């Protein structure tokens, strides 16, 4: 099991509510992961099933994981800011986590609206000379939002039957970048009954090169 603890940060529009999840078995973290949830105006919270799946995946990989509720969600103050304020708040979270866990690589992950926030943050970090280790984008919000170009090693996972963000829109966005996407047959936007595919693919593609065989087995079994 991994430990969780709640925290509050001062954001651009008031307090930000968040949760930290530590690696399983109390191991020292090998990295930091930030998780961004889906659209706040359509029920998106940090407890969304896909966001929680991403958290559990990174905790299994040995990362300390931070999730926040965006503005106006849960105990987070302020109102929805169409991605700009949310990206600012995610940048505040990034700064807080890198100060709290100095020297560790930082992975960015998000679902739906959260993919827009993380693509924007990734662009900011790269421009500042502190690029993210890697991105994991699930249900990338192509065409709905102006997604920034992403690194070539980004892990993208999309549902074949996503009627919120059609797969064709994602392919149109990725084609000029020549970046592949993992398509889960039969999966809808929320990956109903398909959440396990998200974890298994991220685990595989993240690679266990720096994990011992026992650690890799334990992570896969979580």
From TrEMBL:
Stored SUPFAM superfamilies: alpha/beta-Hydrolases
Any one GO molecular-function label of the UniProt entry: hydrolase activity
Residue ranges annotated for the Xaa-Pro dipeptidyl-peptidase-like domain, each copy included: 45-123
Keyword terms, alphabetized: Hydrolase
Any Pfam family the entry gives: Peptidase_S15
PANTHER family, per database record: AB HYDROLASE-1 DOMAIN-CONTAINING PROTEIN, ALPHA/BETA-HYDROLASES SUPERFAMILY PROTEIN
Protein name: Alpha/beta hydrolase
Lineage: Bacteria, Pseudomonadati, Pseudomonadota, Betaproteobacteria, Burkholderiales
